[in-house]
Amino acid sequence: MNVAFLNENTLGHTSYLPRFAATLAARPELGVTPYVLDALPLPAHLRRLGDTAIRGLWQVGLDFHATRWRIAISRHAREQLDALRAQIQLDAVVVNTQSTGLELGDLPRELPILVALDATFRQLADSPWLGPNRLSRWLQPVTLSRLLRRERDLFAVASRLLPWSERVAESLRRDYGIGGERIEILPPSLAAPAVRVVRTQPRLPQLLFLGGDFVRKGGPLLLEVFRRELVGRAELQLVTQSDVPAEPGVVVHRGVQAGSPEWLARWHEADLFVFPSKLETFGIVLLEALAFKVPVVASAAGAASSILGQGAFGRVVDPLTADTLAAALKEALAAPEARVSRAAAGRASFEERFELGRNAGRLAELLHTLGRRS
Questions:
Q1: Please, are residues 23 and 356 in contact by the beta-carbon 8 Å criterion?
Q2: pLDDT tens, 34-50?
Q3: Which helix H or strand E contains 18, and what residues bound it?
Q4: Whole-model pTM over 0.70
Q5: Cβ atoms < 10 Å from Cβ of 138
Q6: Which CATH class is domain 206-353?
């Protein structure tokens, strides 16, 4: 069957659908031929609609940028989809996220539409993503009305909704009244790497931080705690795109690409992965930590608690403060056997819940089931 994959290729969404599509393409026995269509970059005729923001109005949503940008990328995705449908017979459409699917409401009902999402707009409205301050949240009945209406229209015609986590599934049930039979969790998924060989020679334990946006991912708080509590007791490895200077005990790696030898080396040598992020909808990097069997200390942002099994596979710090983070790091460093045991359980959980081949097979089965019904 021919399936279009409409991808919101920004931030953590960049690799979500392409990983599934690449796996399906490499496994012809699954019977799915994928066609990946990226919503970005915007073509010239949509840039003004999607890219322009009005200073002074943007922070409270009165320039309607949150809506305009999503309408623009969904129109671009729809234009590409229409061009593809003119060339081949499509059997289904998979879209990530609802932002990319807002223009799909008038597709033929016999064409199954599957919508993956890391958060509902209702969830985003209560967060700094769409409500950065009190005034912007107060104005949301005006600024987000069109967006919420288009989201509901899309959900109404979708054959299946594929939330990334139970947290999002609960919002679909509670805030949108969508029955559980139309909801199937399909989390971000990774190919399982070979289990790393843990280094045994004497050295300071290595704390690993990965975050392109150093501030949003909680880097300043981690640095504060490290300087106050851990200098001389551990080494902090920072992998970031932000401009952070090195200092005693702190090694900064910039320009490191995921999957590169240097990236792999950081995971293989890490004794503890620290993820004190302040704002997430999921937390894909936590899957990498589980896959590499690296012990974890993380904030509760996004789906961290679910990914880490409510603490069974890593320490979840909630509330997140300098004191609570320091206590969690010191506890983990003082109990190597406990943290290694959690990491081993985390790897087993990864293989069951987040392994790419397994979940691509689930998606293929669902596509064939819906295709037979249409």
A1: yes
A2: 999 999 999 999 998 88
A3: helix 16-26
A4: yes
A5: 13
A6: alpha beta
